[in-house]
Fold this protein.
Amino acid sequence: PIIYASRTHSQLAQVIRELKSTKYKPQCAILGSRAQMCVHDSVKNAKGEAQNAMCRALVSRSRCSYYDGVPATKESPGFRETIMDIEELVKESKSVDCCPYFLSRELQKLAEVTFMPYNYL
């Protein structure tokens, strides 16, 4: 697999835009933080470790409907075969009631190209 790391998500979005304009269409994944990807109404506005703790608590108690949507969504060709930046992944995931944070980690397992910020290395 190819790992493409950048300092900012706007730089990653630019590279993804360029990749979309080519004939090369690899399976891709983009990783980001809960702060960037959370769509759960009661968790997305929390900050830092509080947000991480709230998310973990909901997931561990099976109380996050968005997390529950990950298994079915990760099999969808629309997500596996479409090159998306963070904003697109969040929007599309929310539209099918799926957690983009955990979905991105599942998609990364099969990705040919993974985009991420430097600090994830």
Observations:
- The longest strand covers residues 2-6.
- Strands lie at 2-6, 28-30, 113-117.
- The first helix runs from residue 9 to 20.
- The chain has eight helices and three strands.
